[in-house]
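[stage:ingest] chain + small molecule (ANZ)
[stage:ingest] validated
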Amino acid sequence: MNDTYKPQELEPRWQNTWNETALYRQVIDENTPKYYAMTMLPYPSGDLHIGHWYAMAPSDARARYLRMKGYNVMFPMGFDAFGLPAENAAIKQNVHPKTWTYANIERMRAQLRSMGTMIDWQREAISADPSYYRWSQWFFKKLMEMGLAYRKMSAVDFCPHCNTTLAREQVWGEDRHCERCGTPVIKKDLEQWFFKITDYADELLDFSQIDWPERVITMQTNWIGRSTGADVTFRSESGEPIEIFTTRPDTLWGATFMVLAPEHPLVDQITTPEQAEAVQAYREQAARLSDIDRETAEREKTGVFTGAYAINPVNKARIPIWIADYVMMGYGSGAIMAVPAHDERDFEFARKYGLEIIEVILVPGRDVNEPMTEATTSKTEGVMINSDFFNGTPVTEGIEKVTAWLEEQGIGKAAVNYRLRDWLISRQRYWGAPIPVIYCPEHGAVPVPDDQLPVLLPDDVEFMPTGESPLKFHDGFLHTECPICGRPSLRETDTMDTFMCSSWYQYRYLSPDYDLAPFDPKEGEYWLPVDQYTGGIEHATMHLIYTRFFTKTMRDMGLVNFDEPMKALYNQGMVLGEDGEKMSKSRGNVVAPDSLVDQYGADTVRTYLMFFAKWDQGGPWNYDGIKGPQRLLNDVWMLANADYEPQKVDKEADRALQRKTHQVVRKVGEDMESFSFNTAVAAIMELRNALLAAQRDKNVSVAIWQEAIEKMLLVLAPIAPHITEELWSRRGKPYSIHQQPWPTWDEEIAREEQVTLIVQVNGKVRDRIEVPADTDDGALKEAALASENVQRFLDGREPRKVIVVKGKLVNIVI
Ligand code: ANZ
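[stage:predict] done
[stage:export] tokens:
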């Protein structure tokens, strides 16, 4: 049988066989250790792009490898199916979000099959299925019961011209104008639902139980942003208390003015009539900016004097009170004491508006008689000055000492603050899970009883681009009765943030049809938690913090008995266009996997994706580069189909091929463990080369040849599952190659043969060193020069000449 390799024929054939024989059905087996491998699920945008392939093919290969290593591996897939693009398609193309979404899912599922993955499709979970979002709603209710879901007024973007709220994506440009009419948007308060993720802030900062990339841990740590310091009470001249949070209580004597956030509730009370107009104008201008803009350090600081003064509680200094948009209402108390000498933003502000600067920390090398050109911000060097009886205290002790003193005086106390905000989950959108709440005039916000879940999303809604949830205009949905008293009541018409749906999908995979709980506890007992999660770095904060939060609440609900959802995490890089830029339609550098599969077959595309770059780095696509993996698979095809007959068996050649085989088995195994797919493919290429040489020289025995071929197929199986299955079966081996144990290798056989290297100095033997037989000249020279005896003769001099006789001798001429 020496026909040509036709992936287009054999790949779908094997996919069908795998399907018919339920090869990838993953069921509990108490006698086998489990391994839960999970790859981030896609959003059903329409087409599986090369980035999806890059995320999934290598993680599939690794799951297959672990299966061969004897684990009972679960490798599921699903769709994060709610969200904005579906609704925008509805508005623009007049197609129902549901139709659009499910058509895309169908298409992408077929594309995923064409990749030849070991996904168990019976475990598929789709977040837009009522059987799924029923449990998203159930979780919402649980969080409500636990006091972890609450409602409060919160700002949304609002277009005063269109008279509607806008989603974040509908606000454009630096002036933040409405996408449709160009009017600058304003902030408007709406009642919205929040999850109290801040209750878990400290626990979320503890990464001790997980093996996650440092980079993700740093990003999460910064996102949560824990700061320690003190809350201190200042008072306005008229006696109103003004709370501030500071990380530097040791600089209190240098506070020369105060700044309130423009939205601070005290602003109206304290502003003097003369300043009222300027203050009002400034507040309106600030309301148009996003928080991100306001916090940007580079933006020039602006502000307005309120006309009022405060008293600094430590030295009774009378200091002006300003408002400025660099102070955020949502952090600390929304008010600060400004210490221009030691805070960069305050320094810039003081310089711009001519406010006083008093230095209270003297850093080494500074002359207090020189004017300051920038704030000195060190927390590790310097001593306190101009601070009464604290003068001379080193900064390293100042914070603690001043805080203790503040507590004694009753002016302040130690405090912790977080950047992390509670999670706003209300969306004024249709295509999401309805928030399961009914508003009764008598009983307020009442959760929908369990037996009425799911609150179904009606199909017959109008998609008007109003910015408000279309559900608000659906009378049948909107009007209902109070579950407690039966009075006419209104349903909540907002839907949930889709990050809510994706926070717990790893649990739904366990039993997507289970209808007694979010997941079947029997399945959970065996499979949980996820052993290995893989996905892009773009989810480092939101999704990966939300799912950790969710698991901690599920633990507190008694649903799981662990603290972290995913024990290990690995981030793959990105495939770029051939021009090295991010792929985009407008650049015309998009690589479409479907046509590649038509041309080369899925196995070649998979192999190339694993070969062209280190997985965590990624890099530019290269149409020429794919020829290497294509040649590899063609060679493997030819070698495995060849009738091999030796002419004259050479013992050395036999040993060499066997050694290579065992080395490659070892290497590919190690590389699979460590996600080093590119070096794994390279190792298989080396084995292919050795086989090509043996075929040409016909100098190895049949047994060694067979072992090399079979082990090559086995180690290639996770990477290129179809061709290896075909060749395995053609050799009359039992179905399936993917159920075979990972091949063994022998340390002894894999060891490079050692030879004794003779080291001479000026022609006299001075040392003997054991080295592997295949050590190259450069390495032999290095080994010789490193010899202690040689070093003694050299005595720090450079050798004049080094002569290497391969595998035998090195002569150093001095
Ligand atoms: C006085 C001071 C002196 C400060 C000094 C710093 C250095 P992190 O580390 O991010 O927690 N701050 C407090 N609340 C704020 C708000 N709502 N908007 C903007 N800035 C606010 O930063 C805490 C510091 O940021 C606080 O410490 C306060 O300025 C400012 F030499 O107080 B500091």
